[in-house]
Design a protein that fits this description.
The chain has 150 residues and is an all-alpha fold. It contains 5 helices and no strands.
């Protein structure tokens, strides 16, 4: 038979001590480092007596962090709306505008009418841009009509 190990002897001694304490009515005292002294650094205020000197990189880090936050807010805030609801809203608005202009218009399934509205707007803008870039030409028809009346 093998001799008992040290761990087995230790647990046996602990059990014997507990049984004697329970039998005599004593409270068994557990030691969980409760009687150890508490370091005073645990009660000291943070950075008490230490001067905080700014280092050279701190200012640029604050500036670039603030700029990054502003840039990120601008990118998120100004991003185009790409949801299906926003497209459907614009398409419905374009169809209602075209039906208001021409009530007898037959709308076709699958045709994107907001593109038609955008093309009409681009054509009218192109006409305006062409007239405004040629300052020598007089494209104002109202002035010609007034001249004819006089």
């Amino acid at each position: 038979m093998a001799p008992p190990s040290a761990a087995l002897l230790r647990t046996g001694r602990v059990a014997l001590r507990r049984s004697k304490a329970v039998g005599s009515g004593q409270q068994l005292q557990r030691r969980w480092a409760g009687d150890m002294p508490v370091p005073q650094s645990q009660h000291a205020p943070l950075w008490n007596g230490h001067t905080v000197k700014k280092e050279g990189w701190e200012t640029s880090m604050y500036v670039f962090t603030a700029l990054a936050l502003v840039l990120q807010a601008a990118v998120i805030g100004l991003a185009p709306e790409t949801s299906i609801e926003s497209w459907a809203r614009a398409e419905a608005k374009a169809r209602l505008q075209l039906q208001a202009k021409d009530p007898e218009l037959k709308l076709q399934f699958g045709k994107h009418y907001q593109d038609v509205i955008k093309n009409n707007q681009m054509e009218s803008w192109s006409k305006f841009a062409d007239r405004s870039t040629n300052p020598g030409e007089d494209d104002d028809e109202e002035d010609e009509e007034e001249d004819d009346e006089e």
